[in-house]
UniProtKB/TrEMBL annotation:
Pfam families: SRR1. PANTHER family: SRR1-LIKE PROTEIN (PTHR28626). One of its GO terms (cellular component) is nucleus. Belongs to the SRR1 family. It comes from the Eukaryota. InterPro entries: SRR1-like, SRR1L. Residues 77-235 form the SRR1-like domain. This is SRR1-like domain-containing protein.
């Protein structure tokens, strides 16, 4: 009882709740640490396979097959940017590992000015590893709506068709579409396999590019065991309207 005659009530349960909260927090932190450790281990295992993946790609002649076309697209310019969308997890996906290996080979061979990558499924360990390769991680989902101001190669193997459409759409009215090239699913195959849905309704800018005859494609060579990583993949370029 205090001097005014009131009894001070002490809720002893708070101490118990605090101890419980600290215990739960420690458990949560331990789970997070274990999760990060598992992510790092998976990433380490996948990076150990990179040299073998490089050799498979070199043996497949995929880099040699597409390099002349990319250099022709680059032209006399000394600057060529690269933007990568939708790579997937290089820790969990064998296909993503092959696709990432090709990205690294292109970085080494083509000497890009800047390289950017967005992949929503990246772990912290993957983001750090990719950043160490000189690649800038895009923090927000652009939905493919990136405007280009200089020659830019969009590396987008097996991305959703709407993402390709958005890349073209974002550079269509300004005429900058001639400054971009895409490594992704063949547009001509989409045109042939619209499967009952009009390509023009779903992806009007892809359809317009095909109809205008401004699309040129260099199909990737089919080589086992890389066929699943790059099947139906092409280097796609765009000419100016005549």
């Amino acid at each position: 009882m205090d001097q005014d005659g009131f009894t001070l009530v002490v809720h002893r349960q708070r101490s118990s709740n605090k101890r419980s909260h600290i215990k739960n927090q420690k458990k949560t932190n331990a789970n997070i640490a274990a999760h990060h450790s598992a992510d790092k281990e998976k990433l380490l295992n996948s990076t150990l396979e990179l040299p073998a993946n490089f050799q498979l790609l070199i043996d497949s002649q995929v880099p040699d097959h597409i390099k002349p076309s990319i250099e022709e697209f680059k032209g006399p310019s000394t600057e060529l940017d690269c933007v990568c969308y939708g790579l997937g997890s290089i820790s969990d996906s064998k296909l993503a590992q092959f696709q990432f290996a090709l990205l690294i080979i292109m970085i080494q061979e083509l000497k890009f000015n800047r390289v950017y990558l967005f992949e929503p499924m990246l772990t912290q360990a993957e983001s750090k590893f990719i950043s160490l390769q000189g690649i800038s991680i895009i923090s927000e989902n652009e939905n493919g709506e990136r405007k280009v101001h200089q020659k830019t190669l969009f590396y987008m193997p097996h991305c959703p068709i709407m993402l390709y459409n958005n890349v073209i759409k974002s550079n269509w009215d300004t005429g900058q579409y001639t400054k971009l090239a895409i490594i992704g699913n063949s547009f001509e195959t989409y045109d042939l396999n619209s499967m009952g849905t009009s390509l023009g309704d779903k992806c009007p800018f892809i359809q317009s590019a095909l109809t205008q005859g401004i699309v040129t494609e260099t199909l990737f060579v089919d080589f086992e065991p890389l066929s699943h990583a790059f099947n139906n993949t092409a280097l796609i370029q765009f000419k100016s309207f005549k």
